[in-house]
Amino acid sequence: MEQSDAGAVAQVRAGNSDAYRVLVERHSHSVFRLAFRMTGNEHDAEDLVQETFLRAYRQIGRFDGRASFGTWLYRIAANCSLDFIRSRQRRREQQTPVDEQGQELETAVAAGDPTPDRLAFSGELKQLLAPALESLSPMERTAFVLRHYEGVCIEEIGKALGVHSGAAKHSVFRAVQKLRKALEPAVSAAKS
Amino acid sequence: MKHLNEDELVLRYYGEGDDAAVKQHLEACEACRANLESLARVLDAMDGLEAPVPLENYGSRVWQRIAPQLAQTRDRWWMGWLVPRRLVAAAAMAALLIGAFLAGRVSQRRQMAGLSAPVRERIMMVAVGEHLDRSQMILVELVNNESKGPVDISEEQRRAEDLIGENRLYRQAALKSGDRAVSSVLDELERVLLEVAHSPSKLDSAEFEQVRQRIESQGILFKIRVVSSNLRERKVPPQGKASTAL
Known about the structure:
Chain A is mostly helical. Chain A has two domains: 1-95, Orthogonal Bundle (Rna Polymerase Sigma Factor, Chain: A); 97-192, Arc Repressor Mutant, subunit A, CATH 1.10.10.10. Helices cover 78% and strands 0% of the residues of chain A. The longest helix of chain A has 27 residues, at 69-95. By secondary structure, chain B is an all-alpha fold. Chain B is 74% helix and 2% strand. Chain B has helices at residues 6-13, 20-28, 30-45, 58-74, 84-104, 106-112, 117-144, 154-176, 180-198, 205-217, 220-235, 241-245; strands spanning 151-152, 202-203. Chains A and B meet through helix 2, helix 3, helix 6, helix 7 and helix 9 of A and helix 1, helix 3 and helix 4 of B.
């Protein structure tokens, strides 16, 4: 019979680290999906999956069972992702002055100036989407990915990231505003 | 008529903030309906960002990669102490440690020979607790140091060196009594103290950040707090009588 998450967690907490394998194998795909959307590339996403499971293992003594293990793990994954994109942004800021970054984004968006007959729309949108997501602050990106792709409600996003729901809501609004500005011309042109 | 702002449209799109007034306004206002449709087109188009599907045995591959790291942390794992059954065991082991320490200290045994076992135990708990407090203080000062430029840690190094010998004594006593959990925390603390003591006295900001991150990544401060808390609980005399005597 398949072992439940709760049963595996109890065994891990009792010192049987091999029981953790069940949890890793069961939840790896969903953590990977979230990590990929947060980072935008497979390599970073795979690193984040490992970091998430290692962090969860170290913190499993604090898991109180009020939420499901999957939800708890998801929160850890979201916070790992947030830490990761914050540090990635810091590294980039050290390497590239801010105004140059802004210019890079503008160039990327302008270069993809939409003409439906020039490129396949979906491919073009993907080209625009990556830099548009990169232009969001770490909190905006995390909140947006959780809301838009993972279907997490704003109140839950606030809880997961340890901020007030007002702050989570504001991050989602700002993200949508920026993404709309960057993508709307391409989407409208494709429609016409 | 006041139109809906973008925030209200975003909430509407995601089905949050089920506001009857917003719904009613949308039914009546063509401009806002068009604005919502335009927003929805952009957000719907973003659904195309599909995450690649990992290989079928992806979970097993993740496990293969992290399992060796779990094994490394298992031996010095503090989290099991948070399980109530183990808290009791940890308290019992602390008593064994103290007993073993007392048995190993001949000179102190002579001095303490006239004391009862509970009093001796309490004295030792105070000593171990103070040792941990002093160690914690050094580590906290290092972790909280926010200097931007080069950092001089010679003072912390001097104090760390003083504590290393004492720490070794406690660790050996714990090992002798077979208390792996306590000895492993002291073992980790010893390694951190050695690292601090043997670092260059003047560190540039990158080197200092490395030291700081190593202290933080090992979670040693938390483990010290857990042990100190256990010791303090055992030091507290039974309540009630003391109050009535006053």
